[in-house]
Input
Amino acid sequence: MYLLLEFQSSVDRFMALRIMVYTGLLHQDLIRRDELGVDRKLPSVLPVVLYNGERRWRAPTDVQALIQAPPQGLERFQPDQAFLLIDEGAYSADDRQPINNLVAALFRLEHHRSSDEVAGLLQLLVKWLSGPEQAGLRRAYLEWLRRRLPKWFPGETFPEMHDLQEAYEMITNRFEEWKERQRLAGVAQGRLDGERTLVLRQVQHRFGTVPPTLRLRLQNASQAELEHLADRVLDATSVDDLFQ
Output
């Protein structure tokens, strides 16, 4: 039995066809290298697609769903292969699913919805991976965390972490600080968006339709630029003059 793993971060409508091609190439390679069994038959293959994208997977998981219905009597001549889909997000979104193994914990971490959820999952991992025989898995999870944390908390800096326990303590100690910083950033962004909307309404009220290029400049304007535009709206003679 061969296990064929394909990792996907985006939905591919023709994934089933790709899997069928990969399986065929694997079989051809085994024939070329003369690695068939004594019975000279091709081995079984279990194709698995591990998908970690944000959207839920909606593409077909078998080739037949991609092929038009053939004329009657020709059904058995059509290709057919399916793959086992593991959609991490679909699993993580179901709170009824128990977190009773390392794979489930990883899926929940990948698609966590709060900082507290990350801390709770890390606490479970520290407990489950405490034995000396789990040293390899601890290192793997720690390296994975090093890569994921900057994506979860953009703009933050992280000290060197040498084990999962240290990572858990560092994250839980700094969560409140991070959350407050993110809250303040969100407030500031909301205020800036509100000012953009207000200035745009003032410009439209004074000059009518705003050209797309100038609208884009307005959308990218800083706080100081927005204040300057708000002061000039009453005195400018045209939209172009306003943006000089």
